[in-house]
C-alpha cells in the first residue's frame, strides 16, 4: 500500500517560520518522521511539497489511477480558499486526511474556515508534525 503526502505552500521553510505555531523541525526532519511511521505501519509513502495551487491540483488529479491507498494533505493557506483543491480532493477515491501543524481554530478568524474539510475523510490539527503521524494511523484504520 502506498500513501501520498502533500505539503502545501511555505511548508518548505519549516523550522524558520513562526516556530511558536509550526515548531523547530525542518521539512526534511518532518519527512523522515513520516517515512519512519509509514514504514512501521507497512506503507510506502510518496511525499511532495508544492507552493503552487495548480501543482497540488495536478498531483491530486494524478491519483485517479488508483496508485495510492490514501492521501494526507496539508494544503497550508490554500485550505482556507481553494475551491480548485477542494474539487480535486472530492474527485479522489481513497481516504483523504486534512492535516495542520497548528490548531487552526485557535488562530486568526480566517484560518478557522476550511474549504477542504467537507470533502476530506477527516481532519487532524494542532499536533505539530505529529499531526501527519496521526493521519497515517487514521488511514491505516480506515483501509
**Name of the CATH first level:** Alpha Beta
Task: Name the overall outline.
Answer: globular
Q: Based on DSSP secondary structure assignment, what is the total number of beta strands?
A: 5
What is the residue-averaged pLDDT? 93
Main sheet: strand order: 2-1-3-4-5
Protein name: 3-dehydroquinate dehydratase
Keywords: Amino-acid biosynthesis, Aromatic amino acid biosynthesis, Lyase
EC number: 4.2.1.10
Subunit structure: Homododecamer.
Explained architecture:
This protein has helices spanning 19-22, 27-40, 53-61, 83-91, 130-142, and strands at residues 2-7, 44-49, 70-74, 96-100, 122-125. It has one domain: Rossmann fold, CATH 3.40.50.9100. With 143 residues, the protein is an alpha/beta fold. Substrate binds at residues 74, 80, 87, 101-102, 111.
Condensed summary:
By secondary structure, this protein is an alpha/beta fold.
Give the key terms.
143 residues; alpha/beta; Rossmann fold; five-stranded parallel β-sheet
Chain-wise SSE layout:
Blueprint: E1 2-7, H1 19-22, H2 27-40, E2 44-49, H3 53-61, E3 70-74, H4 83-91, E4 96-100, E5 122-125, H5 130-142
Parallel strand pairs: 1-2, 1-3, 3-4, 4-5
Helix pairs in contact: 2-5, 3-4
Amino acid at each position: 500500500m502506498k500513501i501520498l503526502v502533500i505539503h502545501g505552500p511555505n511548508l518548505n521553510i519549516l523550522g524558520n517560520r513562526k516556530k511558536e505555531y509550526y515548531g523547530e523541525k525542518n521539512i526534511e526532519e518532518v519527512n523522515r518522521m513520516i517515512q519512519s511511521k509509514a514504514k512501521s505501519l507497512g506503507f510506502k509513502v510518496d511525499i511532495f511539497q508544492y507552493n503552487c495551487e495548480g501543482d497540488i491540483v495536478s498531483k491530486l488529479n494524478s491519483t485517479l489511477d488508483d496508485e495510492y491507498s490514501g492521501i494526507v494533505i496539508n494544503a497550508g493557506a490554500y485550505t482556507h480558499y481553494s475551491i480548485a483543491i477542494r474539487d480535486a480532493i472530492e474527485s479522489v477515491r481513497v481516504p483523504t486526511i486534512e492535516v495542520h501543524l497548528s490548531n487552526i481554530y485557535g488562530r486568526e478568524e480566517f484560518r478557522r474556515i476550511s474549504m477542504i474539510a467537507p470533502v476530506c475523510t477527516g481532519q487532524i490539527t494542532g499536533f505539530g508534525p505529529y499531526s501527519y503521524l496521526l493521519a497515517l494511523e487514521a488511514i491505516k484504520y480506515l483501509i
